[in-house]
Structure formats: structure tokens, C-alpha cells
Amino acid sequence: MRLVLLGPPGVGKGTQGRRLALACEWALISTGGILREAIARGTPLGIQAARLMDDGRLVPDDVMIELVRERTLDADAADGFVLDGFPRTVPQADALDEMLQGRRLKLDGVVSLAVPQAELIRRLSGRRECPVCKRAYHMTDAPPRDGRHCDDHPATELVQRVDDAEETVRTRLAVYAEQTEPLIDYYARTGRLIEVPGVGAMDDVFAALKQVVGCRRRAG
Ligand code: AMP
Hints:
Blueprint: E1 2-6, H1 13-24, E2 27-30, H2 31-41, H3 44-54, H4 61-71, E3 81-84, H5 90-102, E4 109-114, H6 117-126, E5 127-129, E6 136-138, H7 166-180, H8 182-189, E7 193-197, H9 202-213
Parallel strand pairs: 1-3, 1-4, 2-3, 4-7
Antiparallel strand pairs: 5-6
Helix pairs in contact: 2-3, 4-5
The structure holds adenosine monophosphate.
């Protein structure tokens, strides 16, 4: 199964994608995660991406397309993958179709997760992570035990992602509306769009997601 998770920043693509990939034994391909890792390692890709990401803008299409072309060829992606954060533009979506057609494969579905804008801002502004293990927290929805440090690394204070700062969140939401939201129609027109409401408890959203994508390999 080859799936795309589509939706605005803060909708839960990362969290739900991780759970889905684990439960269904598909590779999780998070383009934002790959870029953050490249930044941490100081690779040429990381150096190119850092400024754009910090400003909430998109990394150029050709860079992202090449990155996904290579990552989807890895052995762990052979039986299926969940794409979190790609495609984000129409040229990226076109390239994904071409890439898969060239391998005689197809995209099985595009899950669109949606929540109201006020809720997105609430989720993004409360989001924190452990700089050591990258475990995700939310200051009200999923706080750490002592309110400040990672549960697994008690000496490490949680941090906010640079691009979760208020001003950058506004840019990211505007970029989403302008460049990524048109993909909802793009995939609806070709009958590949599956809409799942992203509001409510994380477990309920996950159960709905798992049901619509038809993962039957393992309970999770
Ligand atoms: P995310 O973790 O998916 O919110 O991505 C964080 C940032 O990485 C985005 O704001 C972009 O700057 C960059 N990024 C991730 N995926 C893509 C993509 N498919 N196209 C362009 N930029 C991307």
C-alpha cells in the first residue's frame, strides 16, 4: 500500500503517520523529518534547507522530488510506504505519479486530514520536543510528567521547533493554503482522495484512519 497523508501543519500527519506505518509495517517517509536530520548532520542538503524551513517556506521542488525518488527505493519501502509531508505542490504530485508509473506501481490513496484553523494554531503553539530523542509532547494535550523535561531524558528540557514560532506558523499556514491545498482537488478529481476528520482524540482519529486505509496486517 502506498499512501499520502495530506493536510495542514499541525493536523497530526506526523503522529498518525508514524502510528500507521508501525501498525501496518509500511515505511514512514517524512520529508520534514529527513530535512531536520540533514540539518542536524550539517549535510549540503541540510545547509540548503535550514534557512527556508526556519522561515516556514518550502524547499525547491527538484530537491524534494529527488529526495523522495531515492528514499522510496530503499528496501523497507518495497512493500508500502506512508508519505508524510510530500507532495506539497502540484509539480511534486505530478512527479510522484510519474515516478510510480515508471516503476509500474501506483499511489493507492491520499488521506486528507482536516481540523479547523484555530485548533491548528493551538496544537502548533503547544507542541514541544525532546532535542535528544525527538519524542513529541504537547503542553496541554500530552505534557511531560514534570511539565518541562523529557520523561525519557529527565535532564533535558523540551524545546519548541524553530518553525513553530507564532510568526512562522502564520507563514506555513499561508504557504499551505496557496501551494498545498490545491492538491485536495487534484486528488479528488482522480478519485484518490479519502477524507478523515482530524478532530477529537488521537486514538479515535487513528482508528478511523486505519479503517479507511484497510490495513489488516497487525493490530495496532
Ligand atoms: P513538516 O515537518 O512536514 O512540517 O516540514 C517542515 C518543513 O520542511 C516545511 O515547512 C518545509 O520547509 C520543508 N518541507 C518538508 N517537506 C517538504 C516538501 N515536500 N516540499 C518542500 N518543502 C518541504
